[in-house]
Design brief:
Blueprint (H helix, E strand, L loop, with lengths): L1 H11 L4 H11 L2 E3 L11 H8 L4 E3 L1 E2 L8 E3 L2 H15 L4 E4 L1 E3 L2 E2 L13 H4 L4 H17 L4 E2 L26 H17 L3 E7 L26 H6 L7 E4 L17 H11 L5 E3 L6 H7 L1 H11 L4 E3 L5 H16 L5 H17 L7
Parallel strand pairs: 1-2, 1-12, 2-5, 3-4, 5-8, 8-9, 9-10, 10-11
Antiparallel strand pairs: 6-7
Helix pairs in contact: 2-12, 6-7, 11-12
């Protein structure tokens, strides 16, 4: 215990007790990456997430583009890693993957996981067959300790030349009713197995011509209001849902900011006009559409100002970068730029979500 207290002081000095409480409040609003395929509780990363427990973590496989991000080798190994994450933080975590199917799946069949086809292929199956396959995948996710899946995709395949949605088969189709039907099957299968579904990418990425991973994407002349239909059809009250933002820019919705950083989009449109009362998670803030223009610390503050509840920093897998981000947001609160009420709102939504799925939240 004395060793732990010493480390706690080391990481937070010269912070006061009030500063430390604030940083712990801020940390709950982050979802970060994890280094490697196993975790020792005496590692720098583990000690840091124990002192500053994040709201969640996101896991990747070797096919995610950067071998250094690989967290997933097999079901047995993954189950061990997720147990270690819970043990080392001492708090229940949201543990997420991108398991859409097809080209975007972190749990791959060659590693022993359920072979999940892309959304475009799933939409060609009879609904009951699609649901049964989604249930098989969800049951396995639950067994290995995953409790959040960044799926289903609600984007409409409006632009067939879209390199990152239609081009990868990630959309169920162009017709909003088809998208709604198959997305609801996936979401229902996940919920039935204690996994939070995440509807993405709000307010719609399917009409875009570019990839926000690679840079600025303007959909002003392409975006259509029909892209909101699946969200309106699937939203339910009670805080059991999560929506992921898109980094697209649309000057008809906000003439200055991309959706992820826009209060007009996240608060005025999503919450006020569309009535969404669940958790809003950003798409990865390290993507170039955001990172190139704002930088990580500024993006984190702006996203919370706009109404996001959970900040996704998938590329942050080391303790020092994580502490720096938490400190930047805490500074914005101390300086009055970001209100404590905004922190409390976000934390309350996350707590309600975790409780609804039996994940829980210790004080």
């Amino acid at each position: 215990m004395r060793h732990f207290l010493f480390l706690l002081l080391l990481y937070t000095w010269p912070l006061t007790a009030a500063d430390l409480r604030l940083e712990r409040q801020v940390a709950r609003l982050f979802m970060i990456g994890v280094p490697g395929q196993s975790l020792r509780c005496d590692s720098d990363y583990a000690r840091t997430i124990n002192a500053l427990p994040p709201g969640g973590v996101i896991l990747f496989d070797e096919a995610a583009g950067d071998p250094m991000r690989a967290n997933i080798r097999s079901p047995k190994q993954l189950a061990s890693l997720t147990r270690s994450l819970m043990q080392c933080t001492g708090r229940p975590l949201l543990i997420a993957v991108d398991q859409e199917g097809g080209r975007v799946r972190r749990l791959r069949p060659e590693a022993g996981f359920v072979d999940l086809p892309a959304a475009k292929e799933m939409a060609n199956l009879p609904p009951q067959q699609a649901y049964d396959l989604y249930v098989r995948a969800a049951k396995q996710m639950h067994r290995v300790g995953i409790n959040v899946n960044f799926a289903p995709v609600l984007d409409l395949a409006i632009n067939q030349d879209n390199p990152v949605i239609a081009g990868l088969g990630r959309a169920y189709g162009k017709d909003p009713e088809t998208v709604t039907l198959y997305a609801s099957l996936f979401a229902d299968a996940l919920r039935a197995n204690g996994i939070v579904p995440v509807f993405k990418h709000f307010p719609g990425h399917g009409s875009a011509a570019g990839d926000t991973h690679k840079g600025f994407v303007d959909v002003t002349t392409r975006w259509q209001r029909i892209e909101l239909f699946p969200y309106l059809a699937l939203f339910e009250p009670g805080g059991r849902q999560m929506v992921m933002t898109a980094h697209i820019f649309n000057k008809n919705l906000d003439p200055y900011l991309p959706a992820t950083l826009s209060k007009r989009v996240l608060h005025d449109l999503l919450r006020e006009k569309m009535g969404f009362d669940g958790v809003v998670v950003t798409d990865a803030l390290g993507m170039r559409a955001i990172a190139d223009r704002y930088g990580p610390e500024e993006a984190a503050v702006r996203a919370l100002e706009a109404g996001a509840d959970l900040l996704l920093f998938a590329e942050v897998r080391d303790a020092s970068r994580y502490r720096k981000l938490v400190a930047a947001v805490a500074k914005a609160v101390r300086e009055g730029r970001l209100s404590r009420q905004r922190l409390d709102e976000a934390a309350a939504r996350l707590k309600r979500l975790k409780t609804a799925y039996g994940i829980g939240e210790k004080r």
